[in-house]
Fold this sequence. Notes:
A 6-stranded mixed sheet has the order 2-1-6-5-4-3, with helices on both faces. A hairpin with a 3-residue loop joins β3 and β4. The protein is elongated. By secondary structure, it is an alpha+beta fold. The mean pLDDT is 93. It has 6 helices and 6 strands; from the N terminus they run ααββαββββααα. The protein has a single domain, classed as Nuclear Transport Factor 2, Chain: A (Roll), CATH 3.10.450. The longest helix is centred in the first third of the chain and has 20 residues. 37% of the residues lie in helices and 28% in strands.
Amino acid sequence: MLTDEIRKARHKLVLDHFQDEVRQDWDDVLSTFPHPHYELIPTMQVHDGDTAVRGYYHDSRVAFPDQDHEIIAFRHSDDAVIAEFWLLGTHRGPLGAIPPTGSRFRVRMTAYFIFDTDENGDENLVCERIYFDSLTMLKQLIGGLNMRNPKNWLLAAQCLKGLVAMSGDKPDPTLVDTTPPAFAD
């Protein structure tokens, strides 16, 4: 059962995690996990372990160096803090195969910060699982191009080519090969 003390400790950890991400203090962000693990549901990607998560941080901040958030709400469950927030930033570098458009985005997201208790009874953040509508983000990034300006036509074509190239990425099997829970009568 979730106690008030555990709820407050989790809440603080998640707030610290968010603040450290905005400051781009990756050592502090990673210290919130015993083993860093991110699951990005819209792209079906998993970043597991220190090196993979640091790579994710690097790539996302190359694409959006000013990435920030506006928290909407926190909700608590027995094993998670669910954060609802706006993610925002400016597309200044490549996002995978999509070249930078210079457009701003603001996308509503949900992140599940999943906790587990270890053998010593300590609470640990074991996963950040992120959900968002990638089409909303892409519409803002590509839709921000002024198509009346012929200089942007080539960039728009490169963005579409990048989207097509990324659409062939295989999903992480841990996100696809799931087992339904067994519910008690």
